[in-house]
## 1
Amino acid sequence: MSKQHSFSDRPALDTALAAHIAERLAADIASRGKASLAVSGGSTPQGMFAALSRQHLPWDQVWITLVDERWVDADSPDSNEKLVRENLLQNAAAEAHFIGLKGNAADAAAGLQEVTARLDELPLPLSCAVLGMGGDGHTASWFPQASNLQQLIDPRGEALLGCCDPVTAPHQRITFTLPAILAAGEIILHITGEEKRAILAEASEKRYPIAAITEQQSNPASIWWAP
Ligand SMILES: O=C1O[C@H](COP(=O)(O)O)[C@@H](O)[C@H](O)[C@H]1O
């Protein structure tokens, strides 16, 4: 059963979640000498990123990457890297190491090998993975109707990253796979709004991709929500 943390408003959620993630990173730095964090993009995490960027941590011992990235230039308004650079890699967290998931290849499939090679420097397993969820029930870049969805969410898969060409959203993607996320020290699902809460409630019945996280018991995700 997933642990649920509900807050009365988004600023309270952002503050509490940022403090919680910082505690997790600090614990891994104490035990492993370094920590790693994969964060999602989209609109939800902006306030949490700002709060996390101000946490007191030895950030030079923290490696940050993305759970998923859209195959757009890093200065595009749709770039998850841009969101992270402008909101998380600021203040104290400017000292963190960042590994982006966008390369120079013409498309995501052609860039997959080069981007995967970058993860050689990422401390694995991840200390913490922070997932979001879209209105179509996707998480990471595991999109409903994508032709390779089952491959991306196969718990026995061996790849860290895969590509996705969504039917329900723009841009090709590179994304962490389900087994790479399940190996994380902690999995957090960060969502806001009544609509997303309702989508989550019917995820299993509708077989939304987020159910690959909420229905598994090997590493239960905690759910962090505010209206
Ligand atoms: O496309 C994406 O969408 C999801 C959800 O985004 P939001 O705007 O509804 O918060 C996000 O988790 C994912 O990282 C992103 O690539």
## 2
Amino acid sequence: MKQLRHRYGGGAEISFPDWVLDAGGHALLVGPSGSGKTTLLSIVGGMLQPTSGQAIVAGQDLRQLSAGALDRFRGQTIGLVPQKLHLIASLTVAENLQLAQYLAHLPKNPQRIHEVLTRLGVAELAQRRPHQLSGGQSQRVAIARAVVNKPKLLLADEPTANLDDDAATAVIDLLEREAGEVGASLLIASHDGRVKSRIGHSFALQRQQAEETA
Ligand SMILES: Nc1ncnc2c1ncn2[C@@H]1O[C@H](COP(=O)(O)OP(=O)(O)OP(=O)(O)O)[C@@H](O)[C@H]1O
């Protein structure tokens, strides 16, 4: 991140400090509500063009990519577990993962889909549709979808919100394990103290300004 700033139409400008997340490193993005955590994930996830500055992912300056190239790069290089999981209701679990391969312009790979669903303990749910899953199962499927293309950067937005202690621990374990499995850097936005105690390195945002903590 270099001199990143963003202003939503008419709103105040949010400026983010320069920061590097090492390849394969795991970090927590913290800050009070409204400090810009989701905005930052959207920028480094290639879904939001910042007003100014550079987001560089795996050596690629996202600004340099055309819309089509950015879609492909995002699909192949970045995995996102959004706050609202956004599984496609009309598709089965397996088809939701197939769609991630398709959107990244990768060949169909049912074996990889089976492998990742198995790793996450939800292979037997492959033919179900999202409304037939529990909240925890849906979250595992969303993690599976985020890692199916073996991204270099895995982003998760408040993945433990509304989870009890055991489920929150399980989700953080899964994210760390799956990021480790594919060698991805992991950035988790959270103001959950339970997550803070698990992930040592954190990056803190404050309203309209930010500072890094070790
Ligand atoms: N689409 C939008 N249009 C206008 N303003 C927005 C939009 N999205 C976010 N904002 C504003 O940008 C600022 C940062 O919001 P953001 O959602 O990134 O913060 P956050 O740290 O993720 O908050 P939370 O912890 O509550 O999820 C807030 O002031 C918010 O009101």
